Amino acid sequence: xxxxxxxxxxxxxxxxxxxxxxxxxxxxxxxxxxxxxxxxxxxxxxxxxxxxxxxxxxxxxxxxxxxxxxxxxxxxxxxxxxxxxxxxxxxxxxxxxxxxxxxxxxxxxxxxxxxxxxxxxxxxxxxxxxxxxxxxxxxxxxxxxxxxxxxxxxxxxxxxxxxxxxxxxxxxxxxxxxxxxxxxxxxxxxxxxxxxxxxxxxxxxxxxxxxxxxxxxxxxxxxxxxxxxxxxxxxxxxxxxxxxxxxxxxxxxxxxxxxxxxxxxxxxxxxxxxxxxxxxxxx
Length: 283
What we know:
The protein is built from four helices and 16 strands. It has helices spanning 27-37, 83-93, 149-158, 206-214; strands at residues 14-21, 41-42, 54-57, 60-63, 74-80, 103-107, 110-114, 120-125, 136-144, 164-167, 170-175, 179-185, 197-202, 218-223, 226-233, 240-250. The model has no long low-confidence stretch (mean pLDDT 97). Helix content is 14%, strand content 35%.
């Protein structure tokens, strides 16, 4: 009989990193960068007005409310199906974004791009470390103060019950099958936290909530399916380590596992193939 390491299939309590939310002031420029260049798909059902836009990448999203821009203190990592096609799209939008903070470069098998307001993205081709997906929000990598990585890993292990490890100034927290929250220590000055957030789905919804509420760390009681917290603290001493709002949702949330529309960005009116409008890869 075949023998397997069954622990290799353990997921932990964080099931899905569903979205990153950063505000931006101009939907036209946001469309050029996130949809035309990065290849995302604007959600056709929810947030279709001018006050917000949701952009789908596989089973995950970026949320982009229309307000003064926020700057994520770190880098968002994506898996995309075709780096060569991404390169061509970035080249195409560059003239329209030349008076913004937009930039991009390719190195060591990844493409790094900066949005018109300075948020950083790192795009990878599909690889075993990202599971089977070919299109997804794979990780968020935060810049954090020196000496905080070990405590951050303990916080996620002990409070949120997620597999987490730290070494050499870097903490990595497993989310679901192949996503991660990453925390990288830096001595560079960090800008003040401006309210951007990440959203996660969590299996054991109540136990972390009780721990955080007992310490007055819950910042929002959104509804029966969602609560939020903002401060990551050392679980032993309570010392603050880093600040990033977590929108925490239960698996009973109505939006959990909602099917998302994803297009094939290679299809245009002049390069049309019947039946190929939808993304055909693996989410």
